[in-house]
Write a structure and sequence with these properties.
The protein has 398 residues and is an alpha/beta fold. The protein has 14 helices and 15 strands. Bound molecules: pyridoxal-5'-phosphate.
């Protein structure tokens, strides 16, 4: 039998590598508890593809690390990846740099809106959206997602109402949607986009999870829907979730509209952050050119982890609802029907089970009673976490 090229079951000790996910002091400060098995922040415990490690090593061996400019091959790698995997024909001039998607969202808010303007989000959603809006002195308008038949959907009437408010300037779309795991269909995206376009609301499409798609779902880049959609949107992507290189700070902002693009570039040039670091550029180019096979294997492993989690909870209790995972490695689980008060549920998981999950309430009030898991760990770690959680819950639900 041939040895598999990748071993996602391998346990790698990250506790001494300054990984935020495994840092007990950080967890203590942030969550109040420590000594926890971490399945929280969207960061994977898998060894990176060898092609990436070798490319970084080769660059280290060169021995000189001065100011750098990304080569044409960096842009080609991005263009080819999005063409190949997402059927999106991106032009080189549309591609701009950001040290992260969250910084990019902050820049876009600062450069294209004024204090006091409204920005729409759809809770429950990735919590830095709301904090970025508030920290910049803008107002959050929450077009809350609705649950229909155990499936999250968009309230289009409410979206329209919020877009029509005179000071509404932007809508931050999370596509795929963290934490509810939805991969929006073309029909849904088209409907959302039409409403925004009619009301001159610019769409910031955060597509950082676009490569992590399961089963028959298909990610549709928002800007591919029509030229009007492209011209009235800014898309944020990154190789960081797909290949677990968030520590290399190398995100990508795609702006087909020349006026918006020039303004964004002028501003980041002003801040002197217009290009990735040497290692960020090497990593981006390498993963997009050489690590596709690793990603395809990773997706299979993550899906098996999801099925494992789903059947574990199904065997344990019929009142725990695991939502379908169409995209991302962050399943969304509703514990609300267990009859435990949401704060107490979070305490039981963190303090008694000693597992660190992201409490659903962090993603907005509509997330109370939910918990967000992170499946990007060896299956034995996931099993350990699930056993700890169910053992602790048993004491409270009889
Ligand atoms: C939807 C979404 N956007 C952005 C980020 C973070 O992006 P970055 O680390 O590039 O700022 C995350 C991380 O989990 C995310 O889930």
């Amino acid at each position: 039998m041939t040895k598999p090229k990748w071993n996602f079951d391998e346990i790698i000790d990250r506790t001494k590598s300054n990984a935020i996910k495994w840092n007990q002091e950080f967890m203590k400060e942030y969550f109040k508890y420590d000594d926890m098995l971490p399945l929280w922040v969207a960061d994977m415990d898998f060894r990176a593809p060898n092609e990436l490690i070798n490319a970084l090593r080769k660059r280290v061996d060169h021995g000189i690390f001065g100011y750098t400019v990304p080569p044409k091959s960096y842009y080609d790698a991005i263009i080819n990846w999005f063409k190949r995997r997402h059927n999106w024909a991106i032009e080189k001039d549309w591609i701009k740099f950001a040290p992260g998607v969250v910084p990019a969202i902050n820049f876009i808010i600062q450069y294209f809106t004024q204090p006091g303007d409204n920005i729409i989000i759809q809770e429950p959603v990735y919590y830095p959206f709301a904090s970025s809006i508030k920290n910049n002195g803008r107002n959050v308008l929450n077009n809350q997602l609705v649950i229909n038949d155990n499936h999250y959907e968009v309230d289009f009437d409410d979206l329209e109402k919020k877009c029509k408010e005179p000071r509404t300037k932007q809508f931050i779309l999370c596509s795929p949607h963290n934490p509810v795991g939805r991969v929006w269909t073309k029909k849904e995206l088209t409907e959302m986009g039409k409403i925004c376009n009619e009301n001159n609301v610019i769409v910031i499409s955060d597509e950082i999870h676009c490569d992590l798609i399961f089963q028959n779902n298909q990610h549709i880049p928002y800007a591919t829907i029509s030229d009007e959609f492209a011209q009235k949107s800014i898309t944020c992507v990154a190789p960081s979730k797909t290949f677990n290189i968030a520590g290399l700070k190398s995100s990508i902002v795609i702006i087909p509209n020349k006026i918006l693009c020039d303004e964004y570039f002028a501003q980041i040039t002003n801040l002197s952050i217009r290009a990735p670091t040497i290692f960020g550029a090497v990593a981006t180019e390498t993963v997009y050119n050489k690590c596709e096979e690793w990603l395809d294997e990773l997706l299979k492993y993550l899906w098996q982890n999801f099925e494992f989690l789903k059947s574990f909870f199904a065997d344990f209790h019929q009142n725990i609802m695991v939502f379908d995972l169409e995209g991302s490695y962050l399943p969304w689980v509703d514990f609300g029907k267990l009859g435990i008060e949401p704060k107490e549920l979070d305490r039981i998981i963190k303090e008694e089970a000693k597992v660190c999950l992201d409490d659903g309430a962090m993603f907005g009030k509509s997330g109370e009673g939910f918990q967000r898991f992170n499946l990007a760990c060896p299956r034995s770690v996931l099993q350990d976490a699930l056993e700890r959680i169910t053992k602790a819950l048993k004491k409270h639900i009889g």
